[in-house]
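Hi there,

I know you've been waiting on this one. I reran it after we fixed the sequence typo, so this is the corrected version. Both the input and the resulting structure follow.
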Amino acid sequence: MFKHSQLESVKAWVAHPAHAAMPLHARIQRAIRQLIVDGALGPGKPLPASRALAKSLGVSRDTIEASYAQLHAEGFIDRRVGSGSFVAEITEFTPGHRLSQRDALLRSQTPNLSKRGAAMFRSGGVREMLSPRPFAHGVPETRAFPLQLWERLERQVRKEVGAQTLLHGDPQGTEPLRRAIADYVNLERGARATADRVVVLTSSQQAVSLCANMLLDPGDRIFIEDPAYYGARKAFDAAGLECVPIRVDRQGIVVDQITAGPRRANAVFLTPSHQFPTGATLTLDRRLALIEWAVRNQAWIIEDDYDSEFHYAGKPTACVQGLDPHDRTIYIGTFTKSLFPGLRIGYVVLPPQLVKPMTVARTLLDGHTAPMAQLTLARFMEGGHFGAHVRTMRGVYAGRLAVLSGLVSKHLSEFVEPRVPIGGLQMPCVLTCDIPEHTAIDAAQRAGIELLGLSALHAASDGKAGFLMGFAAYTPLEIEVAVKKLANAFRAMTIQ
């Protein structure tokens, strides 16, 4: 028997005034044929017995038999004595074939998007690997995460808070987590934060997008590092901003190009603790100069502190936000790198006057971050487990960085020069051979290895060719196997 929706479609087709001139059996035949053509009735599907369909439609059995006979003559159905009537195997009208043809046609058409929508689409978005393989960058080790401890804390939350965790959450974030974040960034990063200045988000990318759209208008200028984090640049481009690249050297962004340059801007975007992708740390004098520039020009400093937990030499420098007494700095952090990507919790520490506007704006995006995850993370931090986990992984990652740099020097010295960072989850390597960057990356992919090219991160065309090698998520053995594969892939190209 037809599904209810299919039977109603036949009834609607039969009753439509536009088909009134057709004989009744022809209307029924055309209606069933349309269901087959549209893929609603797939190959091999049984049709209702003529007696049953006649009763459902309130017509004679002879009318249904005439309809079936015409469908059979046209090749749309097969009739088997003693078994009934079935949709024929017609390749052109199988659901997958028909839908794929239609989808292919629609995909080839230029979508009618807004200017901002078109900019977002052109950017390609920010895509992460679902199952990372060496040497995908920015991925932490998740196999060592204390999952049983996390589950125990989550059970405690469910037991004590109960069904409240199933409801809508505060768009600014749960108070326990905001308090824990404020305590953490004050102690570890030298920030000037209170719980009421923290907004909990789903990611640092969301924070960057909020800043781009809430603080700046289309056409406004923003200074960005060159090279720069691609996710931030894409967010600013999508918001219609004019990104002005500022060169980065060993001491971080060259502040003189901002403070003494001829071009003015409404904001600057920085990764000062561990510049992406060079690994440079912005010096104290440059930080102070930027703060004075921001005050003088009533501009914003957007500080992305994406992986400052992992510092392997010396002590990390205090964040810019903690040095800024004028409240011109927006501090962005995330737990994606320090814990695990699936947590989807980031945060922003805001000047007091921006808290309400930013909180209202995020309600238009996703409403709030899941309360259960927030409350569990708050307990994880309050119990000292977050600090313990970071300290453990800092040691693990430092060891893996040493392994990677040693293996690169041993097996890839004829191709690249490693730039060993003092922190972070990835190591930049500069190509020193004649192999073009895109060729090297393509060869690595064919060998099952992921590399992020450095050239695309530069606004200027004079950036050094090379790639980033993530090391945090891979064991020493996995790193060794991958480095040797990469060396073999590069040597194969030089032999050709």
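Quick highlight: The mean pLDDT is 90.

Best,
R. S.
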